[in-house]
Amino acid sequence: MISWLVAGAPFPPVESALDTPNGLLAASRHLDAQRLAEAYALGIFPWYSPGDPVLWWCPDPRMVLVPAEFHVSRSLRKRLRATAHSSREQVLVDRDFGEVIAACGDTRAANEGTWITPEIRRAYAALHARDLAHSIEVRRGDELIGGLYGVSLGRMFYGESMFTREPDRSKIALATLVQIMLRENVPVIDCQQASSHLRSLGGRQISRAVFCDHVANAVRRDPIDWSNWTRGPLNELLAGY
Description:
Blueprint: E1 3-5, E2 24-28, H1 33-40, E3 45-46, E4 54-57, E5 62-65, H2 74-84, E6 89-93, H3 97-112, H4 118-129, E7 133-140, E8 143-153, E9 156-164, H5 169-183, E10 189-192, H6 196-200, E11 204-206, H7 208-218
Parallel strand pairs: 1-2, 9-10
Antiparallel strand pairs: 2-4, 3-4, 5-10, 5-11, 6-7, 7-8, 8-9
């Protein structure tokens, strides 16, 4: 049995999440930026299908990527170094957050259906307006060819979704995010749920208890000043791979 959250009600303890399905904690009727911020500060995230109530999750174990453990294959390293010196493609932060989240939703819908509903788009756009959600974008001129978005609280980054329209462009965005996190002393990127793709990039699982203890400390630290990363292309960050 899970909790039904009415407006203003606190989340139940994450330890009360179900074992099956793994991590299902609560449900609610609506989603907004304030509820999202409260959830992420506790290590909780939403994931649900169109037409369903908003479902809130905190699985055990939790997939994370430690930036210092990011794995780069030989072929990806070649792509990253080429992008570092490219005059045709640029890696940017927050050029158009709304376009990135829409692209993530459109790509998933084409492949397997999407949970990135209009309600999700509005709520994360509101988080972005509060400087709590950000996008990494790979562009060729004005054309968006890959990227990702996620939530940033204190010294914690929660990856939400990524997409690519050409080979490896989502990985280029992730590699850029990793370099930003290394420079900002962010030791963990939340990846939510395990996948072979994330494992191939260095992701690993940790217990919910360890993850939530880390989050509780990380979100209280001074937040990243994202304006430092929005001033122009970040291709040079990829030169060290």
